[in-house]
């Protein structure tokens, strides 16, 4: 037995240890430590792998499988809903774009109509102002011509010619009066 003890406890490393001591040589003590740990695990670990534990593990696995299947189903439903929502979003987007285009065309048309009305109003205003200016020029020309004619008549007519023109006009008016009676 001394040989066995000597193989584990090296007195040359522990000179004061005597027959009992700690062996610091890892290579020599490792198989012993492993066999002790395995023995303790086997003795105390029997209940860990019992049937009850196995059943709980199996039921947990089954439950997790059912949960996984439920999650996959929910994921598929969510994907279907996502596709449906994406289609609706695309439809709304396209409807929005077409609505924007319609509004843009309507706005352009309304603006063109407004511009056309303004152009017509401008042309009418210009025409009215031209007619007014022409009428004013005509009145001035007529007034100047009348003043010129009156001036010429007054300078050319003497009193006798003037009386003769008045008598002639009175005679014409009198003849017209007899004809109407």
From TrEMBL:
Localisation per UniProt entry: Membrane
Major subcellular location class: membrane
Keywords attached to this entry: ATP synthesis, CF(0), Chloroplast, Coiled coil, Hydrogen ion transport, Ion transport, Membrane, Plastid, Thylakoid, Transmembrane, Transmembrane helix, Transport
Domain of life: Eukaryota
Signal peptide (UniProt feature, chain positions): none
InterPro entries for this protein: ATP_synth_b/b'su_bac/chlpt (IPR002146)
Stretches of the chain forming a coiled coil according to its record: 61-95
Positions of transmembrane segments: 32-49
Key word Electron transport present: no
GO cellular component, one term: proton-transporting ATP synthase complex
GO molecular function: proton transmembrane transporter activity
Membrane topology: Single-pass membrane protein
BP GO annotations: proton motive force-driven ATP synthesis
Keyword check for Ion transport: yes
HAMAP family named among the record's database cross-references: ATP_synth_b_bprime
Family listed: Belongs to the ATPase B chain family.
Cited PANTHER family: ATP SYNTHASE SUBUNIT B, CHLOROPLASTIC
Function: F(1)F(0) ATP synthase produces ATP from ADP in the presence of a proton or sodium gradient. F-type ATPases consist of two structural domains, F(1) containing the extramembraneous catalytic core and F(0) containing the membrane proton channel, linked together by a central stalk and a peripheral stalk. During catalysis, ATP synthesis in the catalytic domain of F(1) is coupled via a rotary mechanism of the central stalk subunits to proton translocation.
Name this polypeptide is given: ATP synthase subunit b, chloroplastic
Organism of origin: Ananas comosus
């Amino acid at each position: 037995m001394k040989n066995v003890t000597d193989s584990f406890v090296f007195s040359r490393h522990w000179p004061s240890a005597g027959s009992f001591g700690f062996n610091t040589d890892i290579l020599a003590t490792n198989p012993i430590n492993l066999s002790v740990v395995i023995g303790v695990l086997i003795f105390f670990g029997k209940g860990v792998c019992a049937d009850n534990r196995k059943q709980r593990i199996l039921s947990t696995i089954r439950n997790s499988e059912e949960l996984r299947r439920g999650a996959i189903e929910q994921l598929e439903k969510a994907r279907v809903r996502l596709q449906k929502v994406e289609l609706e979003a695309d439809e709304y987007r396209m409807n929005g774009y077409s609505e924007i285009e319609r509004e843009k065309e309507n706005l352009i048309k309304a603006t063109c109509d407004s511009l056309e009305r303004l152009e017509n109003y401008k042309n009418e205003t210009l025409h009215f102002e031209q007619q007014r200016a022409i009428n004013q020029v005509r009145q001035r020309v007529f007034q100047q011509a009348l003043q010129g004619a009156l001036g010429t008549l007054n300078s050319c007519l003497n009193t006798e010619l003037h009386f003769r023109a008045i008598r002639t006009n009175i005679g014409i008016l009198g003849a017209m009066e007899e004809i109407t009676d």
